[in-house]
Amino acid sequence: MADVYTPEWYDLVKEAINNRVAGMDGLPPETLHIAVDIEGDGVSPYVDEASSRHFLIRIAKGACEWYREVDEAAQSTDEIKLDYRFVGPASEFDAVVGGVIDPIDAALGGVIKVRGDMRFLMRQAEHVQVLLDAYTHGVQTDWPKGEPPYA
Amino acid sequence: MVHRSYDAIVIGAGHNGLCTAAYLARAGLKTAIVERRHEEGGGVNTEEPLRPGFRFNLHAQFMEFFDIMPMIQDFDLESLGLRTIVPEAQAGIAFADGRPPVILHRPDLLDRTHASIARYSRSDADTYVDLKRRAQAIQQMLAVGLYNPPTAQGDATQAMILESVFGDIGITSHFATKSPKVVIDELFETDELRALLYRCCVEFGFPVDQTGTGAGFLTFVMWTMANWKLVLGGTHTLAKAMTQACYREGVELIENNSVSGIIIEDGRAVGVHTRTGDIRATKCVASNANVQQTLLDLVGEENLSELWIKRAKAFRSGPSHVLGTPMFCLHDAPDYRSAAHDPEINRTFYTLVGYESARECIDYIRDAYMGRMPSPGAGLWVNSLWDRSQAPPGHHSATGWYFLPPASDLSAEEWAHVRATFNDRFLARWREAAPNMTPGNVIEHRVHTPDLMERKNMILEGDFSNGEFSPDQMGINRPFPEASQYRAEIDGLYFCGPSSYPGGGVHSACGYNAYKTIAEDLGLPSPVVSSRGY
Amino acid sequence: MREACDVVIIGAGHNGLTLGAYLARSGLDVIVLERRHEEGGGLCTEELTQAGFLHNVHANYHTFVDMAPPVHDLEVRSHGIEYVRPEVQMASIYDDGTALTVHADIDKTVESMARFSEVDAQTFRRLYDEAHGFVDLLLGTLMYQPPMSVKELTRALAQFGVEDRSEFLGVKLRRETINEFLDQHFTNDKIKAHLAFHASVCSYTTDVKGLAIGFPLLVGKINNWHLCVGGSHRLAHALWRDLAQHGGVMISDADVSTIMVESGRAVGVTLSSGEQITARKAVVSTVDVEQTFLRFLNKDAVDVELREKVENKIAHKDWTLFSVHAAMNRLPEYEAAEFDPDVNRAWVVNLGYSSPAELNEDWRLIRAGKVPDPRPNAAVNSLYDPTDAPEGYYTGLLRQFAPFEVNGVGAGEWDNMGRWYGERCLDVWKRYAPNLTEDAYVDWVPFTPLDIERKMPNMVRGDWMMGEISLDNMLDQRPLPELGQYRTPIEGLYMGGSTQHPHGFITFGPGYNALQVMAEDLNIDPWWRQI
What we know:
The structure holds three protein chains of three kinds.
Chain A: E1 2-3, H1 7-21, E2 31-39, E3 52-60, E4 63-70, E5 84-89, H2 90-97, H3 103-108, E6 113-116, H4 118-123, H5 125-137, E7 141-142
Parallel strand pairs in A: 1-7, 2-5
Antiparallel strand pairs in A: 2-3, 3-4, 5-6
Helix pairs in contact in A: 1-5
Chain B: E1 5-11, H1 15-26, E2 31-34, E3 46-47, E4 56-57, H2 70-74, E5 84-85, E6 89-93, E7 102-105, H3 110-118, H4 122-137, H5 139-146, H6 154-166, H7 180-187, H8 191-204, H9 214-224, E8 230-231, H10 236-249, E9 252-254, E10 259-265, E11 268-274, E12 277-287, H11 291-299, H12 306-314, E13 323-330, E14 350-353, H13 358-369, E15 378-381, E16 396-403, H14 412-433, E17 442-448, H15 450-457, E18 493-495, H16 509-522
Chain C: E1 4-10, H1 14-25, E2 30-33, E3 45-46, E4 55-56, H2 69-73, E5 83-84, E6 88-93, E7 99-103, H3 106-114, H4 118-143, H5 150-159, H6 162-165, H7 178-185, H8 189-201, H9 215-220, E8 227-228, H10 233-245, E9 249-251, E10 256-262, E11 265-271, E12 276-285, H11 289-296, H12 304-312, E13 320-328, E14 348-351, H13 356-367, E15 377-380, E16 394-402, H14 414-432, E17 441-447, H15 449-455, E18 493-495, H16 509-522
Parallel strand pairs in C: 1-2, 1-12, 2-9, 6-14, 12-18
Antiparallel strand pairs in C: 3-4, 5-8, 6-7, 10-11, 11-12, 13-16, 13-17, 14-15, 15-16
Helix pairs in contact in C: 1-10, 1-16, 3-4, 7-8, 8-13
């Protein structure tokens, strides 16, 4: 059990991902970098309104190599080329983590925006599903400031 | 990126405006052009308003100044797409009765011209070839004259040139006071050649009966005559290349945006009012618009001295050099009766039709000058004979010029009537000279009349000279003496359009000279290239 | 003219210019060659009637504004371009005097629909909201990347369980016509007629199996129709300027006659004037497949099988457009304004299709080479762009779905019947707007399907989408499977025009997607991919 968005929590998410992909066939060989920008929306108590929390994740051969919080919205650099970015309001991210809404629904509904090569995401649908499942159901999350939906 | 402030603003993207802007930007000024239309080039326009694939130059046609035009050299317009052809047979006249044509060739083929004129008169042939060679030889001198602001010594220089170039054959300085018609009649006896030369003279913009332009006929007209280039793809290709040069220099071209006024603060031009808001100019505003439009419409009388208001109002557009452009989509190119004597008339760049005598030609010109609809006659181009891109395969595009009364001489209804009838009347005449110009050979046609030229390009009265060429509006007097150096009486405001010296014509000299004046005032680099000499 | 460069692009339509500008910004030496005297291809604005009346001869509707990546990457909006998004985007006027209006404001659209059917209005609202949610994803997946196969897409949609999550999106769309989609979800014929009309104007023929796949996206951008102030050609100028400001060159009147191939590699082009331009890195054709493979390439450069396919298998639209361009002295005042005053402010008006059945009947007639009784759509740009006509005057455009070849006689027949059919179209307009009597027109000209091909030979048979819009000719199958990824069997030769996925229309898609492939092949750093 870890508080949402703490290092302990995303270590657990990482572990959950890696447990799930272990032994999976057909994992993409690429190393991918994913930026996540969670925007305070005045609803979620975990991200201050008018500020954002930023995460950077590296996936290599299907597994999560690291998962870290960064100060600013991650940008591509010479060392790290971003492949994807997920952006959305904090309450929506919270709701996804809390299993209240489905991440695919959130993307289809346009509340969480996805940027990057959609072709690759579509082709790796099975693997993407596994990652999302780990994110949403892989970890027992603590909600010290209350659990979504907040209303 | 469109900004709200620039160093320099040019009003109008005609060839002169494009020229001034390109040099300003190259000199390091942040420059924008504000253009009313959706297309650049002003009168350098080519369109296909009739059946697709048939292209027509609606205004500027043949190009006589390209060899000396600084912008073509300085911005390497050829690498940006400007390509030309120089047809061998340049100007000709065809007759309904099938008489031999008279054909003038480009300067390297004068022996053929001699043979053509000699069919009528060996003496005229000798004279023409002699005059043409002498006029060719002074190209550099004329170029220096064009690409410099006018000087007070202009008239004296002209007389001196006449004396030195033609004096030995009796053409002395007093010829400068004659009218072109008198000069032509005095020098040539052949009626057919006279008709052709009258028309070539007025084509250049010199009113044929205007005294005091005789020297101009012998120098400028004789030099440019039959020295004409065809722009591949249509004359608009020049505008494209100039625009592209401007883009590459970083000029912003703000199109579809009319200037409604020039902002004057403390007696200084500091920007323009436009449809989308004010744009400031920290260093200068140059106007490619006519001097009347610039001063009376854009600056406003409240910002002008009484003298300047009077001068601006007195500036005349037309009645000479007002033209209408007919457009014909053809199956076959015209096949003239006169071709029986000399088939080259069927492949002559510019062909006169509708004048059986010098008298008919001069009456036609005078009718138009007097505000009367002339009997139909035209100078015609079938550019697709050389440039296949100007018509669909197996077809031809023909265009031409009619001399017509100034736009304001006729009512809107009368112009509509001209559009509905004049081409048919001309076609009947054309058919007399070229029997294959039957209704079945003409797929579609239309005429672009002076009133529409005024609407499309703001060319007042449809006057191709953009201000009549007469001694009181030429040289140091253009547009009027106080404004002859491209400066307005308002600081920071300059004229770069064809109502300034030297006037209408695709030489961009107004734009080039205006840049020289601006450069002098702002301490910018001179555009003069020593090898060029101007 | 210059004799060598890195990349030669054939065709200065919006795709050629877009691709050229990206490559120029990437530091490559680019020359874009255009056969016509004007750049822009379908972005063509000409004073066809009289001076001062700006007629959009082809593209009039810009529906991907701010959705297409090049609009941002090339800073298109900074190049002096002005877009207007009309408040009243479209309307349908029906024979009984009623009218439906589509507004930029979707609430107003729903209100207008509710006057015909409350339940359909609610369905439309759900469809729009849903489509609006995934429009970015759809654009990213289906428009602005090289295409996947239908099979791959279907598999992914199934894997993500999209069908269970969406009321309107699902794998079954690929087996349906737009008509079937409408019948499943809507009840009112007039509402269906309007949505079918809207799809048709976007070239999605309503009775073609599989085209339902595009319907949600069409609805998602139903209120994103933009008008380019001063004529569509201004977008061409903006793109040309971006190209030129970054060192590229556009040459007009450059009629390519040959793509030069050496040892199986495209190395440059020859113009019909005889000039040669060497391309050090690539040649891109943005014109039609036929010209590219049958005219530009020597017979021995093209594999026999491919040549045969180009000769026989390139599918073109089985209908095209007949237009009337009008210079007018008054705006239409529709009788239906009594029912809904907003019709007088509607940019594009469907005159007369009251049910999908009427459209179906016209498709049938048109495919049989018959010219239907006109049910044109009317667009008066001057309502939202006063600069497109002299003061006190207006520029009008009627468009009518029409066959290319008429009555078994051929397309040449259009030269004889253009004015006649134009008059009939104007008569229909007058029926709905009685003030449009003969004296309302300063001038008007017909622009026939044959004229389309004459002006733009790459729009073969007047095919303004440059290839049939059908499931067989979509995605990686467009225009042929071996050309579906913008590469050709000839090394260094690419296809980057609307023959490619996604299709014609001002999408920027083909040029942008060709860029992705070329970036891979030429090792260009994709600076534009800002994640």
